[in-house]
Amino acid sequence: MKVLLINGSPHKDGCTMRALEEVASELNKNSVETEFFHIGTKPVAGCIACGNCRKTGSCIFSDDGVNHCNRIMKDCQGLIIGAPVHYASPAGAATAFFDRLFYSGSSFAFKPGAAVVSARRAGTTASLDMLNKYFLISQMPLVSSCYWNMVHGSNKSDVEKDEEGLQTMRQLGRNMAWMLKLIKAGLDSGISLPEVEDKIRTNFIR
Fold this sequence. Notes:
One of its GO terms (molecular function) is oxidoreductase activity. It comes from Candidatus Gallitreponema excrementavium. This protein has helices at about 15-30, 50-55, 65-75, 90-105, 125-135, 155-160, 165-190, and strands spanning about 1-5, 35-40, 80-85, 90, 115-120, 150. By secondary structure, the protein is an alpha/beta fold. Helix 3 packs across helix 4 (about 90-105).
C-alpha cells in the first residue's frame, strides 16, 4: 500500500512539509509506503475549461507536474494534500494545481484522502473546508484525526513547538493506515467497490 503526499507550499522544507513528514512517519511505521510530490515555485496554470482532459485523459498544460502527479496516483491507494494558508485560503498555486489534478484525473474514487494546512495564525478551518471538497466530489473516503488537520507557525522550528498539531498529524497517519488496511481486507474477502452510475449532469436553467 502506498500514499501520495502533495506539498502545496512554495517552500519545499517549510511548515507544510513538516506536517506532512509527521504523517508520513506514522504511515511508514504502519507498513504503508509514501511518496512526496512538491508543487514548488514554478508558475501553475489555472484550469481554462478547454475539455482536453476529457478527450485525452491528460491536462493540456504538461509542464507543471499535474499530469505526472496523476500518473503517480494510479499506483497509490491513498492521498494527502497539504497547503499553507495565504489570505485565509489555501495558497493560490496549490488550488490551481488541485483544480486541474482532480478534474483531469481518474484514479481517485474510493481511495482515502485527507487535507493538511499550515498557518501562522488564522484561516486554517476555512482552508480545510475548501480542500476537503476535492475529496467529497471524487468519491474518496475522508480520513479524520483527533483535531482539525492543522499546524501553526511562521517557520519549521515554530511547528516543532506545536505539540498538539504534530500529534494531530501522527494520529492522521495512523488513521489513514487503518482505513487502507480495512479497505484492502474487504477487497481481499470479496467485498467489491460500490457500483458507479453513469454521470448525470444537470443545470439550474430550464
